[in-house]
Design brief:
The chain has about 130 residues and is α+β, with helices and mostly antiparallel strands. It has four helices and six strands. The chain binds coenzyme A.
Amino acid sequence: MFSVINLSFKTLTERYNPSLFNYFYENFPEGFWVCEKNHKIVGFIVGVKTNSEIARILILAVLKEYRRQGIGNILLKNFLREVAIENIKHVELEVETKNKSAIEFYMENGFEIIDILIKFYQNGKDAYAMRLII
Ligand SMILES: CC(C)(COP(=O)(O)OP(=O)(O)OC[C@H]1O[C@@H](n2cnc3c(N)ncnc32)[C@H](O)[C@@H]1OP(=O)(O)O)[C@@H](O)C(=O)NCCC(=O)NCCS
């Protein structure tokens, strides 16, 4: 868990309370995946089930030097496979409007922008709400 927390500090602008990672893992382990390469955690995804039909991706991050190698895709595919087993119909997430690589990544994976959320983040930045219908 320490490696995941460390990776989140390195790759994300938002700061998450480290205890949240344990909380999410204990509540919905099916939504928590890590990718390891050469004994090193290089990416992870954390998602939750918000009700019987909707899941939400909270964090997805891959270390900079390991990007564009398909790791994000593998993490997302594992997550989507698990939520499909749970009969989830929609997967939702928010992404900063200026985060072009993540928006591109999610659109390539079938997500669409459904809303813009003004000053969504702690730092006052806006977000897009995105959704995938499974
Ligand atoms: C978004 C993120 C997780 C993608 O991870 P990744 O391992 O690089 O993604 P993949 O290699 O699986 O990319 C899959 C496809 O997404 C698209 N994509 C990914 N990064 C892209 C970029 N920088 N620009 C354009 N398209 C991109 C491409 O279509 C790519 O396929 P291709 O490489 O064959 O062209 C990664 O950029 C990241 O960690 N960003 C910082 C954290 C973040 O913003 N997380 C999302 C918000 S929570």
